[in-house]
Amino acid sequence: MAVPILKEKIGWLQFAAMGLLFGGTIAVGGFEGFKLNTGELMILGATLFWAVENIIAKIVLKDVSSILLAGARMVLGSLILFTVVLFQNKAQMMTGLNLIQWGWTLLTSVLLLGYVLSWYTALKYAPATVVASLLVPATLITNILTAIFITRQMPNIQIVSSVLLGLGTVLLLYGVRRQGKIRQAVLSY
Question: Domain limits at 126?
Fold first, then answer.
């Protein structure tokens, strides 16, 4: 959506990097289990909503600080969640939480705030296509952590995927730096 709406341009290095990232993702997962069922349609819908959010955020971030926008998003999101809980008559579930459950709620809320703030700060200074592409290598981290802590092995397909994701990430960062697509960030927090 960033190309037609925000008029972002994708150079050949960035395009090649996105191809490697896509290849690394497909190598490990593929389309084998793809069934276009309700769950997958919900994921597609969430992805489209997320893409729209990025476009809106990128436009708003021209005039608003990333801290203010992240805070507004978190407050609005919380209000929507609380409204859904109230609408479903499940408010009593929130009042019945113990101290440990509230602690986990607070921890995940702080982590989400950190993610949103980091994301919006990146969107303020870099093209949306670049920022979105930099989420893909999370698969590389997942592959490595799975191999270390769960399976205790790394199958060849995960090695291929990891190499493609690593190369794609390096090429993307190199291309972005070479093309000067990231504005100089002046941290004024």
Answer: 2-179
d(CA 155, CA 137): 18
Scanning 30-155, the segments in alpha helix (DSSP H) are 38-60, 66-87, 91-95, 99-125, 128-133, 138-146
Give the model confidence (pLDDT) of 59-104 as tens digits. 999 999 999 999 999 999 999 999 999 999 988 888 888 999 999 9
Residue 81 lies in a domain: yes
CB 125 within 8 A of CB 185: yes
In a domain, 34, yes or no: yes
Cα Dmax for the chain: 55
Number of domains in the chain: 1
Domain membership of residue 13 (yes or no) is yes
Instruction: Establish if 187 belongs to a structural domain.
Output: no
Nearby residues of 111 by Cβ (< 8 Å), 6 or more positions away: none
